[in-house]
Structures are given as structure tokens and as C-alpha cells.
Design goal:
alpha+beta; 163 residues; seven-stranded mixed beta sheet; 12 strands
Length: 163
């Protein structure tokens, strides 16, 4: 069986010095003296973005949503989903992220020990001793070692025009 902790440890070593992206935690607005406060996204730290995974110095997370912080401005939207994304972008700006900064919200921690024992925690699983990752709901599971190698390489050497 391949050691999940070892795979992610080696990825961290290779990524040392590579750019990281911001993690945020959504705080819903509470009432203060009867006045509703707006939602904001509180900075939580940084992580390397490896497709469906986020890798921090000591945790492995499943990605959630990615928004770019943007100062709130009146806009007309035809779709409720656009309005919701705009509200998230404004919440990131209210949380102190500079305009244009990509922020990951809605991520969740993955328990590597439980996964190694056979629990499935999308997007990771272990089948017949082989760690696998499923990078989309309809995709086949693929070996995690190869997936990490590919994603680390893309982060270290992005294709021309990708930045």
C-alpha cells in the first residue's frame, strides 16, 4: 500500500517556494445593535492548488469554490448564481483580501488516516491498496501518485500564457 502521508510529503518538498493561493472562511453576518452585518470571508492561510486538492503545510483539503475578491458595486444580474458569486467576491473584499486576489472558500479537510483505512472522502479513496483521486463527479478514479506529479509539475512550470 502506498503511504498517503508520504505522497503528500513529497509533493510539499517539491513545491517549496512555489506560489500559493489564499484560503478563506465564510463568516455569516450577525446582527449588532439590531443592524445586520454583511458576510465576510476571513483569511485562513494559504495552500498550493493542485486541481481538486489544496495542500497546506500540514493538511490536505478538498477544493470548494474559488472567487476573486472584488469591491462591492451595484450591478444588474439576470442569474441568481451570478448574484451569489458577486456577493462572495464582495465578502472576500470585506474580509481584507485585495481586489483581484483568488480566494478558496467552502473547502473541507480530508482525513488521510481514515482514507488509508478504506473510508472514501471525495475526491480521495484507496482501492486494493492504491490511493486514487477522482477529479470530477463523472471522471474515473486515477492513481493519486501520477495525479500529484502532474499537478505539481504544472504549478512549477505552467504552460506559456497560463499566468
Amino acid at each position: 500500500m502506498t503511504d498517503l502521508h508520504g505522497l503528500f510529503s513529497r509533493a510539499r518538498e517539491r513545491l517549496e517556494g512555489a506560489p500559493q493561493e489564499a484560503l478563506g472562511e465564510l463568516l455569516t453576518g450577525r446582527r449588532f445593535l439590531g443592524i445586520a452585518r454583511a458576510d465576510r470571508i476571513k483569511p485562513y492561510g494559504e495552500a498550493w492548488h493542485l486541481g481538486v486538492l489544496l495542500l497546506t503545510a500540514d493538511e490536505v483539503l478538498a477544493t470548494g469554490e474559488i472567487v476573486r475578491a472584488r469591491t462591492e458595486a451595484p450591478r444588474g444580474y439576470t442569474a441568481e448564481s451570478q448574484r451569489a458569486r458577486s456577493a462572495l467576491a464582495a465578502a472576500a473584499a470585506r474580509g481584507g483580501f485585495p481586489d483581484g486576489r483568488a480566494v478558496h472558500v467552502g473547502w473541507r479537510r480530508l482525513d488521510l488516516d481514515a482514507i488509508a483505512r478504506g473510508a472514501t472522502s471525495v475526491p480521495l479513496s484507496v482501492v486494493d491498496g492504491e490511493p486514487l483521486v477522482q477529479w470530477s463527479g463523472s471522471a474515473m478514479r486515477t492513481p493519486l501518485a501520477g495525479y500529484l506529479d502532474e499537478r505539481v509539475e504544472l504549478l512549477l512550470r505552467p504552460p506559456l500564457g497560463a499566468n
